[in-house]
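Notes continue from the previous slide.

Worked example: a multi-chain complex. Inputs as given:
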Amino acid sequence: MQTKRMTFSSKWLPYALLAPQVIITLIFFIWPASQALYQSFLRQDIFGLRTNFVWFDNFNRLFADPLYLNSLKVTLVFSLGTTFLSMSVALLFAVMVNRMIRSRDSYTTFLVWPYAVAPAIAGVLWWFIFNPSIGIMPYMLKGFGYDWNHRSSSTDAMILVIIAAAWKQISYNFLFFLAGLQSIPHSLIEAAAIDGASRFKRFWTIVFPLLSPITFFLMVVNVVYAMFDTFGVIHATTEGGPAQATNILVYKVYRDGFVNLNLGSSAAQSVILMAIVIVLTVIQFRYIERRVNY
Amino acid sequence: MASIFMDNLGKVYTGGVRAVTGVNLDIADGEMIVLVGPSGCGKSTLLRMVAGLETISEGSLKIGDRVVNNLEPADRDIAMVFQNYALYPHMTVYNNLAYGLKNRGFAKSEIQRRVNEAAQMLEIGQFLDRKPRQLSGGQRQRVAMGRALVREPAAFLFDEPLSNLDAKLRVQMRVEIRQLQKRLGTTSLYVTHDQLEALTMADRLVVLNGGQIEQVGTPMELYSRPATTFVAGFIGSPAMNMLSSEYLRGLVSAEALSHVPTQADLIGIRPEDLSLAAPKDGEISLTGTLMLLEPAGAESHLHLRFDGHDDMIVARLPHVPDVAEGAKLTFSLPRGKLHPFDRASGKRMA
Amino acid sequence: MVENNRWGNFFAHLVLILGVAIVIFPVYVAIIASTHPPGTFIRGVMPLLPGPNALENYKTVITEGRSRAGTPPIGGMLWNSFVMAMAITLGKLSISLLSAFAIVYFRFPFRIFFFWVIFLTLMLPVEVRIVPTFQVVADLGMLNSFAGLSIPLIASATATFLFRQFFMTVPEELMEAARVDGAGPMKFFKDILMPLSITNIAALFVIMFIYGWNQYLWPLLITTDPEYYTIVMGIQRMVTGGDSEPLWHLVMATVVLAALPPILVILFMQRLFVKGLTETEK
């Protein structure tokens, strides 16, 4: 890893400069993470009196537990749904805004601020709109003959949390897509037009392929967001229900650890989640490397 | 003001790459020394070793009567002008000039006096409140000079200070720097890869190659008696023509080359020593085919092919002759203008 | 034709106006709901036009809160959120600036090792190691304190990376010139490097402030004392606090007040926000 050609020379100063960050990292990141790893191999008896070392038994049990397998499936549906909905809406907006000249900045302003809304608040807002008794959406859906109730219908509950999570993330995806579109050289579009490609064809054969690095990057970021940053959306609205239908992994870790006090299982779930984050981070970094070489 | 003594200076980077080897050089008080050589020859490294920006691996360096090997740059009483000026972009010109003085704890009034004096000398008085990005390249160059000037240091160090300027400004600043340096009488070490800059500015010139000194001398010494083929090729433009003495002996009478040592197997001829006048007594006459004529206003470069010689020979005339490409031309050359070298060692033979 | 045609533009504007409307809709509904008296929400569908009770509702949430459900007046919660967000932001900025400075401008044993220690934090979001982190904070006696709210969230590999990237682009000669001018490392840091980084610092400030303000799970866990409730988690207490339907008019007034500060930050510092967002991911 690089430094400057010439560096300052001091025996102790660099360590002093690093100390605050390294100490905080050790105490609040590395130590708890290793604790999670350690605890994932332990199990307390039901009275909390004895703790046994059980090797991979916590993991074995997890993967035999229909509730955990369900949570995995729910998480997959939720993150893919959120990612797809949020990215496609954002791409549509970005393409439209990119056509504008004078109104580009105004539209951008209107589209970026949901980024500032906390996931929990986003959840509450949509929870209110879809409230089965007074919400505007169930009222309108009734007009189409659909009886909306996320308190009893698993599908409705999943759709609700996906909309809430995706809504907040549109801003982020929009900004990156817009930046990507603006970096496509206009001469390429003109060349395609001279080659006789229609507007629609130009988008799918020129613009979209050139956006693919950004699309890929955003996919990873959105999956990470949906898996780890949406705790608030679930907790403030469905609380994992109805019947586990929206019990995503991070929510389950929290429930099992703090509500059900099943520390061994919760720790094992933490370890699995960390493994997932590590894989996603590695993918993300490979992408960054590629972009640097690009 | 001070003299500088380099005693067997060497630089080896961690990892074992050698940049500078065995440099011995005494610089007199007030002297302008120009370090010149191709890129990678170690000239910048040597300058940075003097500045204290690179550690010295071997030998000793004295500025004045102090050995400064282990002193911080700030404690060596030197000032430096960087290639890209290295002006602090967020500070005004005034603060750029004053920063070094403030760090040394000078009184405010003294700082003001020195900055104003330098600003006047460099004619940047009206820019003192501006930020560097609001200045043109030439103005930035002056500010960089000013930052060195206000320090009133024992020595100025210049690291290719003119290479970012366009050709016209470069000539102008070259003259100004030299005048200023002569007026102040400050010992200066100046690095450039431009041999014209080197020739015009230096009291003495140091040609470096592969981290070692090839030759030290006044510009005219280096020009008229290059010690090695490297110096011969580097100083002078177009570069000196090199012919094997064997080939030359086939062209001209043995008598014409009688003063050339027989061991010298390489003969250098400066393009400007060839002339189209009819050979006088004791002059060598050479005939070649004109392949290309490059007129350059007051002078011209003629690229010639000599029968049986692979490389083209260049002649530089102080006028543009009225000749057609393809013509056979006969040149004359004074016998004393031959530069004999030993091909293997590259050393001058006489 | 590469230029836009009129129908295409019309269509694009239509899509965008519709899009903006959908994006704004939830917040619009919240604002409207916060202006109605409680009776509006007992039956029927939620209103889409403003009601008469705006002043009263906002006064209620700011001064009284909902003592029955255990949520304090939101003035205090807003203040707590602000303190937490600022502490996280300033903390992150300072430790990242210092460590990036050490990593770029010094060469010392174990440099790479420390770099990786910091890098690891990227891979360990608080949500995935929530139980053991809670235990550490509890063992240190930091529950129900601003220190506990902010310090564990301060370490940030992202900010350190961003500053490292930026420092690498600062010309070498500036540091050399500063050394010739007699500036030591900390003087160089203060006089040259910090002023040059100011735009980056500001951009990151915006992103981190929003991050800090929107913290939810962490304050939820480590505050049991309403003294330390933050506004974002407080809303959840209001929604699920009672057995009955939430008091929507008050909940929505709180939602509006909770979402306002970060939204204002984005709107007023849009350029810095966009810069911060797009550069932290590079």
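Summary box: The first helix of chain A runs from residue 13 to 39. The two ends of chain A are 20 Å apart (CA to CA).
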